[in-house]
Design goal:
Number of domains: 1
CATH topology: Heme Oxygenase, Chain A
CATH superfamily: Heme oxygenase-like
Structural class: mainly alpha
Order of helices and strands: HHHHHHHHHHHHH
Largest sheet: none
Mean pLDDT: 93
Shape: globular
Oligomer: single chain
Low-confidence stretches: none
CATH architecture: Up-down Bundle
Radius of gyration: 17 Å
């Protein structure tokens, strides 16, 4: 697909390593129903609550990566990435919470779905014990896939109508801010790859693939509402 940002060599290698796990998200029935507005609100509610808990893990992983960056500018970027996950995307969750009838307390007490738990564990463990490149690679699929999805859906369906039930979601991930975010994140991953040995690069490709697979599984979990709260 044509992207609004450059894909450096190591990022392209990550996409190649992910194989069908990446493209499978674009045609998942959850994503297609979200795009055309036919997704049942109960499914979206489940997804949003799980996503909020996932983003807590994302913020933890980004914060851990920040402690490992030797450059203060890069360190600050990952600190801001953690903040973005909790504040900017948190505002999206809060808005839908008011519409769909759940509160921050409900989110805090929700049972984690199996994919949510596994994905969080993967990112945090990799940030703690992997190389810096491996840690960034495990973090990258979520914002990259959502930016690709936002751009892809914008091209396919155009700007959503004002009464589209998931307009706020579609608008956020198709926005220029996420394009700029991804350009910088992929540059940081390339920078880490340039300083890594072959073993670290291979492990990072695996970490990226695991996260890409979790992304598809996250849609599937929401579609089937695995471990759905009563």
């Amino acid at each position: 697909m044509k992207r609004a940002f450059d894909v450096p060599p190591f990022a392209q290698a990550c996409l190649d390593a992910a194989g069908s796990s990446w493209g499978a998200s674009f045609d998942h029935p959850f994503v297609l129903a979200l795009a055309d507005g036919s997704l049942p609100t109960g499914h979206f509610r489940y997804y949003q609550m799980q996503d909020a808990r996932y983003l807590e893990g994302f913020a933890d992983a980004a914060s851990l990566i920040a402690t490992r960056c030797p450059d203060p500018v890069d360190k600050l970027w990952f600190i801001d990435a953690a903040r973005l996950a909790l504040v900017v995307e948190g505002e999206l969750h809060a808005g839908y919470g008011r519409k769909l009838g759940y509160t921050p307390a409900d989110v805090a007490s929700v049972e984690l779905g199996p994919v949510t738990q596994a994905y969080r564990n993967h990112m945090i463990a990799t940030a703690q014990t992997g190389t810096l490149l491996e840690a960034i690679a495990a973090l990258t699929p979520c914002p990259w896939l959502y930016t690709d999805l936002g751009q892809n859906l914008l091209a396919r369906i155009g700007t959503p109508a004002a009464d589209h039930p998931y307009k706020d979601w579609l608008d956020l991930y198709a926005g220029d801010d996420f394009v700029d975010y991804m350009q910088k994140l992929l540059q940081l991953m390339q920078q880490a790859a340039d300083g890594a040995d072959e073993t670290a690069r291979e492990r990072a490709l695996t970490a990226f693939h695991v996260s890409a697979r979790h992304e598809w599984q996250f849609w599937e979990q929401a579609w089937k509402q695995q471990g759905s709260p009563a």
